[in-house]
Specification:
The structure holds 2 protein chains of 2 kinds. By secondary structure, chain A is α/β, with parallel strands linked by helices. Chain A has one domain: Alpha-Beta Plaits, CATH 3.30.70.20. Chain A has 6 helices and 9 strands, in the order βαββααββααβαβββ. Chain B is of the alpha/beta class. Chain B is built from 25 helices and 28 strands. In chain B, the strands form 7 sheets. Chain B has a 7-stranded mixed sheet, with helices on both faces. A 6-stranded mixed sheet of chain B has the order 24-26-25-28-23-27. In chain B, strands 10-9-8-12-13 form a 5-stranded parallel sheet. The chains are: A alpha/beta, B alpha/beta. At the A-B interface, helix 1, strand 2 and helix 5 of A face strand 3, helix 2, helix 8 and helix 9 of B. Chain A: InterPro entries: 4Fe4S_Fe-S-bd, 4Fe4S_Fe_S_CS, ET_IronSulfur_Cluster-Binding.
Chain lengths: 189, 738
Amino acid sequence: MTVTKYDQQMGFFIDMQRCIGCHACEMACAECETNGQESMIHIHYVERAVSTQTTVQVCMHCEDPACANVCPADAITKDEFGVVHTAETSRCIGCSNCVLACPFGVPQKQEKAELMMKCNMCYDRTSAGKKPMCATVCPSGALFFGTREEIELKRPDSVPVDTFIFGNQEVKTKVKIMMPKGSNYLKVH
Amino acid sequence: MAKLPISAEKIIDKFGPKKHYTPMGGFEGSHEPDKLVKTHCCFCAMQCGIQLKVKDNKIAGFEPWMEFPFNEGRLCPKGVQRYLQNNHPDRLLQPYQRVEGKGFEPITWDNAMERTISEIRRIQTQYGNDSFAMLSGVSLTNEKSYMVGKFARLALKTKNLDYNGRLCMVSAGAGNKKAFGLDRISNSWADLKHAEVIIIAGSNVSECFPTLTHYIWQARDNGAKLIVVDPRVTPIARTADLHLPVKPGRDSALFGAILKQLVDNDWIDHEFIEKHTNGFEAAAEAVKDYDLDWAEKTTGIEKEKILQAATWWGKAKTSFLLHARGIEHHTKGVDNVLSCINIVLATGRIGKPYCGYGTITGQGNGQGGREHGHKCDQLPGNRDISNPEHRKYIAEVWGVEEKEIPGMGLSAYEIIEAIHRGEIKGLISICFNPIVSLPNNNFVREAFEKLEYYVAIDFFLNETARHADVILPGSLHEEEEGTVTTAEGRVVKINQAIDPPGEARKDSDILIEMARRLGAGDKFNFENSEAVFNELRVASKGGTADYYGISYEKIEKNMGVFWPCPSEDHPGTPRLWEEKKSAFPDGKARFNPVAYKEPAEVVDKDFPVILTTGRVVSQYLSGTQTRRIGKLVDQYPEPLLEIHPSLAIQYNIQNRDLITVRTRRGEATFPAQIVETIRPDTVFIPYHWGGSHSANQLTVGDLDPISKIPEFKVCACQLIPTGKKAAPAEERSAYQSS
């Protein structure tokens, strides 16, 4: 894979509060040739009966990715830029270990193809100096791809958080979520 | 005569709507396009910039257009998927004529035209020129809107021309003209980002104008307070600092009560009122009894919240008030708009940075389409068809005697009523689907069944065109060059990406050919769209909507030009009223007294529940285009009846129970979706579907007396559980309430 323009200054930020549940990100993601018209990002209502709040589920690109660690076929790799790639099709055995291991519930097994598929941060675009399709089209700014300085300037009341605590496990991620100012981590009970 | 020639099912089998998922040539084709064409989305009036990938004269995909200043690449799901309407299997590729018992069979262009011209002549000879009417749409570019106005008046020689903007923002247009003498939002969206307080009334911004949401969020990053007036907790209302869940149809009571609070607490700009407005005392007098207790009882909103809204608005230094169909689709839509303008004028927050007011136009060219003359009461440049000076000017531009221009005709719904009464016998429509989009549509369908001749120009066979005698295949947005005017008043360029496929023709070529055959060809000697635009510029010169200084070159160079732009060296006008002069001769804006009136239909013991209607994010208007794009259909595949848990308990309704909703006009059955995000006395149904799923079977045809807009947003209904449950939807689980 020839990498020419991957800019590590650029980061991926998610602001759940701004999500309007429009699904533009899903549809744009599916435009990527490598995804075979499947979206690697998913939108969910939290609880539609009481709220219109929706959430975005995208690969968080962990520093120490559980999905890759548990893969018996070494199909999942993290590259020098911190991007955790989707399972290599020639290696993936469709065992679903990664699906079970991911603390964020991201990888999905595509039953038809017997393969795991997940977001690779639009590697075809980001490696060519472009922004991921989902963050480009997001009409409300819930998804943002740019520098940390840019997001801090644009959103003075929020702070990017990349540390998640699941029980005794601490997970650090390349993708950051926007939290109220003063937050340092997100603890998931 | 014009009942369907065969069953609707058989017509759908051949002409759709069918779901389409895959671009031409599969996804591989989109990676090596022949060219990228910079243009705009074909849907709402944000008119987001987008680049279309073209390969082999077909649209193969899209690439975000990052440089376009409004949306900087951002798109909603409709914008992402819009390219799939091109090369769609349902596309009309040749003219058709109805054949009783057989459906629609191909016919040559020459025969289709000859038959149409001969029927126009027969009907007009027998019943008079005005017995042949025309209905137009504001998906059309400015050039096409202008041509339609000229065609109907000079070639068809009828006064009965109107457009589907009549169902959209005419109440706002009429209110703007009464208050300012000019009909346009006051500021560009850029000003919105810096307002201290933003009121959004009756606009589900996040679903109807998703890319505008970003501007509201940016304002909030800058510390803005957001107040949303809506009977539902829409995605934008969910995040508001203050949500005012108004009882449908009671908006002017709310704004009247806010005006009273502004006056009582002296939160008004005396100097601005004195120097730059007329009529303040009468407007204040009209609301003197609208105290908070009355307002709470009338609007259904707690008085503390109303006071909070008035306080924030009253004490702010900068503010923006936006509204949309939620307050405009009423028999007192103009009153609602004027009640909003009154609080803007009372605080003097207009005509200066970060202070603004306006409507969020719904349709793609809703703004330009209401300026260039395909309204029944209007000539180009937003001129008044009843004004002798305005008529004389346009007659000179057109090279005709003033008396050759017909006078004011009937509005859209009134045309349908006249057809029903047998007074109008023939109809031509272009890009309008009234059997889905007009209220009381069983009545509308009956009217279409009475027409002696109906010819439809469209690119898909929509629910109304199924009733046509002859169908002429027109052009998609990407198949003809032109301009549109966005909701912020920016005139942008639509670039042609591909040629119409098969035997389909550009809409303007169809109008020109028809005009030629009607003997008015000399008035339509246009070589291309730019020639039409250049005539439009002259026709608009000196009018309130003055485009004279705008050229194709200037638009492309500046990525849009804001009107008014009266001369070639004028830069355009992103912010109106900076000179504090309205378009009236005395330069003053007008307060208009608004006394609260009830909706045309209120609940009673027989029809005890309020019904309101609106949109969902994945569909657009009558769905002619979006109900053919697979993923947009899958996102929200059927209209759901939103109902509050307390009302659901009263009727023993559970999720997905099939509920028949009955009004005085009809009944239809929908699956229930029980949500706390709606008022307990109100149910909601989205209106994008036709046939048995049509919400507009239920809505009322009563009109605002000034704007002639129907009251889509409120009527009285019964809820009748059928005892059956809907089959599981094809929708994702994310769209089912838990």
